[in-house]
Structures are given as C-alpha cells and as structure tokens.
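re: that chain from earlier
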Amino acid sequence: MKPKLEVCGVSYSYHSPDGETPALSHISFIVPAGEFLAVVGPSGCGKSTLLSLLCGLIEPEDGSIRIDGAAILEGHAGIGYMLQKDHLFEWRTIFDNVALGLEIQKKLDDSARSHLKEMLRSYGLGGFEKARPSELSGGMRQRAALIRTLALKPDLLLLDEPFSALDYQTRLTVCDDISSIIRSTGKTAVLITHDLSEAISVADRILILSRRPGRIKASLPIEFPPEYDSPLKRRNAGEFSAYFNQVWELLQEDFSSE
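^ sequence. v structure.
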C-alpha cells in the first residue's frame, strides 16, 4: 500500500544578492494514511519551508514529493492548509466564510450546504451560521477555519501552528477539540509547531529537525495507553514527561556540541 505522503531527498535553499541560505538538506520521510505527524525543531530550521514545499507553493531544488504515489502539483486539490490565523472575513457570515472554498470552486450546491450546516452543528458552531467573526471567541473562529478547510474534503491536512495565536487556556481546549475532529475524520495530518507539549499531546509520531539547514535528527513514535485518548488526557499520562525529556534532549544536542 502506497503511503499518503512520501518525501524523498528534498533540499531547498533561499537565494538573494548576498548569497545562498540553505533551509533544508536531504529530507526523507513517509506518512501513512491516517497518521497525525508533528514536526518540531529550532527556530529557523526550515519547518515552514517544509510546509510550503508540501503544499506546492515552492518546488524542491533536489528530491521529490509524492501524494498517493503521484508527484505533487501546485494547488493540489487533495491538500488542505490551516494557518496560524483564521483569516475569516468580517463582511461575511460564519456560514459564508466556511463555504468560501466551495464557492470559489463552484461546488456550493444544496448537498454541500447541508453538509456544512451539519459540520457547524457537530463542531459546536450550530446557531452561529449568521454571526460575524467578531462575535465569536478565538477558539470558535479556529473551529470555523477548520470547517472551511475540511469542507473541500482534502486527503492531507497541513497545520502551520494553528493554535499559536490563542491564549494558553483556549489553546489547550481548541487543540483538544480540533485534533479530536481531525482524528474522527481519519484525515492524514502534518502539524508544524514550536510547542513540544502540543506535539506530544496530538501526534502519532514526531519528526525532529536539526538546526538550519534542517535535517531529520530523529523520528519518534508516540504511544499512550488507550484510556489517554485525547490531548488533554495525554498531558496527564505518566509517559508524557518521558517523551518531553526525550524530545528536549534531542533538540539540545545541536547546542551542546558547540
């Protein structure tokens, strides 16, 4: 069975009149269908560059990226991208915001409208269809942003620190909600985050990148007993601190070697 995502020997550098800045070097990994993968690493190690490569915004200088065995193309319909900010439009209602992608693709028929309304109800936004973004809390806005992304039925979700703009308490709750939603849909997801606790609480596996140019230092499977089936519960598990210390030590190796 082919993996959902396959990254083979990918390298990328930024070029300017002052010279070349390598961002990623010979990155290779696979993501099976349904896996929730988190990517962590020091600031500037190329995490955001990796997401830009995965969604086809930029092309690798070396190597290849495949989804379901096919080379990735710019604007690949099977990819959903959730950003740090919700980017909801104040002049549109919540329903019109979550329907925007379908509207642009001319797929907003009666069936799609019914599906969107059901998603809004299921994900805690029932009754807010006619509200404006400013009337919603930060967590509710992020749920709306996720619905907008899921409405296009992507095969692969790319999450670029989607909880970083929220206060800590809201961040914990929304992380719990959104990761549970993603798991319930069976989607394959790749999360970029600076928050090690967040990565451990949501992921099936964590990729740890080195300092720039980013290379894969380790691939760490994350396993908890079945009763710890949500991010908030995982944070209370005995295994949590052991994983945190393991990831922290791997990240610190680059600096201790100086």
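Residues 29 and 69 are 14 Å apart (CA to CA).
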